[in-house]
């Protein structure tokens, strides 16, 4: 369709919907070609200098939550099969250990497929400086764990991490259990073992049962069968490994109409696949929100450079959170980790 005809029809307000769609596609394609001719900006040039040639280390000092047997512990042994694992009760303690060079990396749960984001971790993203270097999505099956002489009919109270309790809320309500939030699934199992009370149970993994000498009272008690938690591997320094193919940023939209739409539209124009867009209220603010974007691509790609330079220049408080490796794509499924399903 002729562009001049479209514009003339538009002026006369005599244009069909399909013509408008064609005009929209035409203008966006022209804009995409215009953007592709732009020189790389200072920010994308800066990021290119952060690319490192070495492989992601497998033998690093790693901090994670809880105790041996936690779900984060499983991820730690998968990503760092030769690593030195250190355990902490709280997520902020993991970041403290990284700041003090006690650990090189930390592993934090970011979101669950059935129970949403771990808000504590998102708040730490705002308060603390660290970068996402990798991610791993773990299939989570929850088990009800009690002492060797316990029966389900005798259980009155359950302990676990708030996320695990939320992921098993229907089961807990159906059984009339009183729930108690605790630091971690593994520490909850350890607590139940130490209390040695037949009326207490923990929600945790099958490995926790073996590790702490507990009996599996029931299995797969989560609200939905397809239950995944995405963990992020974080570090203090910005490093971009060769296999990094996903990017995470956070920002505030400008205080003017259409600002957020203008940002989202750039993903479509540049053919960048956005895998996540989430808003989160800023603690202590007057209903102000910050937006988190995850998208696919390498910072070596021209369209990714264009997008990042645009976001840097057209958003408030823009923060590049990392270009990271999706370890689900590269981890050997036949790993000899102590958490191999055959050993559970």
Number of strands: 17
Instruction: Kindly provide the radius of gyration, computed on alpha-carbon positions and rounded to a whole number of angstroms.
Output: 24 Å
The span between the termini is 64 Å
Helix-strand string: HHHEEHEHEEHEEEHHEHEHEEEEHEEHE
Q: Which structural class matches the secondary elements?
A: alpha/beta
Roughly how much helix do the residues carry, as a percent range? 25-40%
Mean pLDDT equals 87
- The backbone outline, from C-alpha atoms, is elongated
Bin the strand percentage: 25-35%
Main sheet overview: 10 strands, mixed
Helix segment tally = 12
Low-confidence stretches: 338-344
Give an account of the 3D structure.
The chain has 344 residues and is α/β, with parallel strands linked by helices. It has helices at residues 3-11, 17-36, 42-48, 71-79, 91-99, 119-127, 162-167, 169-175, 185-195, 206-212, 259-269, 302-313; strands spanning 51-52, 61-65, 84-88, 105-112, 116-117, 131-139, 143-146, 157-160, 178-181, 200-204, 215-219, 228-235, 240-241, 246-252, 274-281, 289-296, 316-326. α1 crosses α2 and α3 crosses α12 (302-313). The protein starts with a helix and ends in an 18-residue tail after the last strand. Mean pLDDT is 87; it is low at 338-344.
What order do the helices and strands come in, and which of them pair?
Layout: H1 3-11, H2 17-36, H3 42-48, E1 51-52, E2 61-65, H4 71-79, E3 84-88, H5 91-99, E4 105-112, E5 116-117, H6 119-127, E6 131-139, E7 143-146, E8 157-160, H7 162-167, H8 169-175, E9 178-181, H9 185-195, E10 200-204, H10 206-212, E11 215-219, E12 228-235, E13 240-241, E14 246-252, H11 259-269, E15 274-281, E16 289-296, H12 302-313, E17 316-326
Parallel strand pairs: 1-13, 2-3, 2-4, 6-17, 8-9, 8-10
Antiparallel strand pairs: 4-5, 4-12, 6-12, 7-10, 7-11, 14-16, 14-17, 15-16
Helix pairs in contact: 1-2, 3-12
